[in-house]
Amino acid sequence: MSSKYRTLVALSHAVPVPALFALDDILLASLWSNHRAMRDEAQEVFAGIRLTAGAFLDRDLDRLDAVATPRWVDDADVRLAALFTGAGLSPKDALAVRSSGGIEDGAAHSFAGIFDSVLQVEGLAALKAAVSQVWRSAFSRRAAIERLRCGLLDAPLEMTVIVQRMVAARWAGVAFSHDPIDGRPEMLIEAVQGLGDALVSGAAAPQSVRWSEAGLAGDAPLRDEQEMLVALAAVVRTVEGQLGTAVDVEWAFDGEQVWVLQGRPITSLNTAQDASDHAEWTDLYLAPDEDIGAFRPLPGFANYFRSKRRPLALLAHAHGVAPGTALLVRGNAGGFADASRMQALCARFGEDSVVLDFSDGLRQQVLPTGELAARLRQVLGAKASTFVIRDYVRGDWGLITQPTAEGGVLCECSTDGLLAINRGSALTHTFFIDDEARVSDAQPTVAAPFGAREREQLHRATHAAVERFGPVQLEWVASGGRLRLIDFSPIKSLHIAQGGEGHHEEEGRRTISPGFAHGAVLVVPADRQLEDISIAATVSISHMPSPESLGPAIARLAERARAGGGSMIVVTPRPYAALAALIPYVSGFVFEQASMLCHLAILLRESQVPAVASRELHARGLEGASLTIEARAASAAHAVHGSRETA
Hints:
Strand order of the largest sheet: 8-7-6-5-9-10
CATH class of the largest domain: Alpha Beta
Radius of gyration: 31 Å
GO molecular function, one term: ATP binding
InterPro entries: ATP_grasp_subdomain_1 (IPR013815), PEP-util_enz_mobile_dom (IPR008279), PEP_Utilizing_Enz (IPR051549), Phosphohistidine_dom_sf (IPR036637), PPDK_AMP/ATP-bd (IPR002192)
CATH architecture of the largest domain: 2-Layer Sandwich
Domain Pyruvate phosphate dikinase AMP/ATP-binding: 92-212, 227-276
Protein name: Phosphoenolpyruvate synthase
Helix content: 25-40%
Largest sheet: 6 strands, antiparallel
Organism: Variovorax gossypii
CATH superfamily of the largest domain: ATP-grasp fold, A domain
Distance between the termini: 40 Å
Number of helices: 21
CATH topology of the largest domain: Dna Ligase, domain 1
Shape: elongated
């Protein structure tokens, strides 16, 4: 049983608590034929949100909405009737159906108001509908976003449903044993006449009184209910003694006695310094350090962007290229409740979409600029958060550039966009710019979208970046004939490109990483989860994740690769970034098609793991038990095939 239910049962021995019983997951599994399937489906979505750092949050929230509703077993009414009898209740009683989530009312996060409650429930049919609604609120949109905001996506999906006799309340409300803002040992009581749900939900303005050493002060007529307030104060002190900490108590008074509906620790103590309103921002890349000081301490991702991309933005300006736009923001719900401040923030972005990096659990979320305000209202809380918003420049082309040994530049481009190139899902083309910014004679069609001015900028900035930062590759977006320099990625060594590489690509074979390998085939077909993890902020050139950190599917692939003794060859359609986790456990990779400069390709070359892109070899790998690849710098490759092993 959950902590809220256990707390109420324990308190019932010391203070008045209405008769109740609970339906935990074990009981619900016996009452619903599809209980496990529903829970597993919702838990899978939560795991996906964590693995992708919320990059596909809207789609994942839609998946939660689509989880099936409970299917009650045939004898559910009989089983429920037995529970009523055991608790001294009747289905004819007016009932309250409340949540008691496994993560609710903890020491750090109360989840107050996140889960559903249903009041004035009468009859078995209404009870079953209310129980279903309350249980499903454990994975509602509101609950998912709160889990994400609190870093609790990994917490088990547990929801006990409490069924409790309704109190015919004359007064109801919340009583705090200490001031919830500054922690002073003064009892603060807020109440409304009638049911307390209007107060808890914010639908009704409460009356309040404060009980301190100076006496009782506050609003009439609540202040005049002396007998009720004395009884309530005694109940609150008893609950505080039982729980051993400052508490807030939901209560109801029926004209004769005060009933405790819930008791929990006050989670907001010692956070008064975070309660003031905030809504400020500055340019993350170009602002001077003294302007950034007001936002410190910065989250890790903001520090990363600032330290890495500020020098790049200055280099871009020096070469007449526009850098990406990014704002460092500090704010909370109170600060951005002012619509004019929210509008002013959104007006700073000129593209149709933005990228929101809100927390370690919510990264690289691309959303229309017009929806930014709504998303911030969802994720902002009372405590100020520091986060980053960037223009998302989709553009007409994504490009990655590296200098060549001959003084030229290798360019890889795709209309699928820069993100798709990096993460391995793009169809790419390469061309070379020589030391006079001319395109190789064999590749004029590929380079046609980039005029002489753009080629000159690509050439100068790419070589200047290597002089400034060491071995790096630059990441660009071209939009409307203009280049935007977005990012750079440090690499251990520059790719030594041969002028004839384009010829071999046209033949259908392309060396991604030179070397020789022979082994059994490990086929990894494309699927949505693999693509999602690859697109998310989980994998980068500077960080090779463990298989276990990328979820059970990648962990199972790694286990099979380990069982193969490190000699297996991965056969997969694209160089998905998430497959970097397999590099230590395999001897080679074969792709149907691949980018030369994507994250996985760079990691393969740095790890000296041979890899080749070839439709023919990929097809043979799908049919074969073993494969031999010989990938030379001139893009030669050879294969032998047999039967296959699939993932």
